[in-house]
Amino acid sequence: MSTLDSITNGAQVGAFLPLITAIVQRPAWSRELKRVVAVVLALIAGVATVAVDGGWEQFQHGTLTFATIAAVLTASQATYDLIWQPSKIAPAIESATSRKPGETAG
Fold first, then answer.
1. Are the C-beta atoms of 90 and 80 separated by less than 8 Å?
2. pTM of the prediction?
3. Could you tell me which of 4, 22, 9, 17 has the C-alpha nearest to residue 98?
């Protein structure tokens, strides 16, 4: 796999990652906690993307691994700030998947 392929695949995963992140996050969480959760999920998604694209031996190539993880992180933050948050799609998912006060699991 080339570095360009690695970056492209990472950017594709990162572009839609904020929608998945919105399922996990809760509206009541602090901005800092939401940021930490988003970064951790981007790092996990980056590692998963490397593994899926090139198998576990791909991790022997530090540049490709770093490029993929960086692309996922960058694309996820950029698309959240430019598309998903202003369109209110990510916040709507976050609210829809959160329990309401007084609601029990069940």
1. yes
2. 0.84
3. 22
Q: What pLDDT digit, counting tens, does each position of 46-65 carry? A: 999 988 887 777 777 788 88
How many other C-beta atoms are found inside a 10 Å radius of the C-beta of residue 93? 19
- Please name the residues in contact with 8: beta carbons below 8 A apart, sequence gap of 6 or more: 71
The dihedral formed by the CA atoms of 40, 44, 45 and 47, expressed in degrees to the nearest 10: 140
Structural domain containing residue 59: 3-96
Residue 11 belongs to some domain of the structure: yes
Supply the DSSP symbol for 60: G
Tally of domains within the chain: 1
55 by DSSP, 3-state: which? Answer: coil
Q: CA 31 to CA 90: how far, in whole Å?
A: 14
